[in-house]
Specification:
This protein has about 280 residues and is α/β, with parallel strands linked by helices. The chain is about 30% helix and about 10% strand.
Amino acid sequence: MELWQLSATELAAGIRTRTISAVEAVRSCLDRIEAVNPALNALVDVRPDEALADARRADEDVAAGRPLGPLHGVPVSTKINTGQEGRLNSHGLAATAQAQAPGDDACVAALREAGAVFLGRSNAPAFSMRWFSANDVHGRTLNPWSPAHTPGGSSGGAASGVAAGMTPIGQGNDIAGSIRYPAACCGLVGIRPTVGLVSGWSYPGDMELEGPLTFQAWAVHGPLTRTVADARLALYAMATPDLRDPFGVPAVHRVTPRGPVRVAVVRDVGLAAPHPAVGAALD
């Protein structure tokens, strides 16, 4: 098994215990990106030299015995509608094709603080308002399982990249299904957390201003991963309070249930029935 095939949980544990190095993990994912991304177009603005430099610093921190975050050395992608300092923040629009964020949005800052190594920006439709992932700036993203099927939107680039093994974690955001639908299309775990758990504070494009309050309130950030354990790890790494966010609430990372945990399953939402195979899996 190659390192790009490991989960984020496995990579984080291996890097922390020096069983593997962050450089090895990042290089394996970069090799995977080079092999499959030209056909899938999941990630844009990939900068291998910067990623490897960050990975080397991560390994130095481990060797020096410095405090390590939960995602220390783990490769992650971020979405083109989410500010990452000095990286493309195009929103898939020709008018802002070269826009670069002046700083990290709060959720990206939380991932950085957790030790994540950013490999590239994931594609999305213009304004992130479509159920597929294509735009006039970066082109169309394909589903790694079948190029004839959509990877979903709007976090389709993140979903395609994670499903194809480019990164074990993809940051996405969701107003009306933009994490959940791509996760379903690509066979992943995706979670849209409750508003306020992950800070929505953001930069709009390349302006040193606060993003629109409506977008911060509606577009909830969350992870796309290949395993439930990775979704938990990534979610709580992102769930860092930010005083700039009026909706922010303190995260509760561990809860001891008072009794048996019950889950409600709604089979009929009044709009469409689930596929029989999906219904059978819930029985």
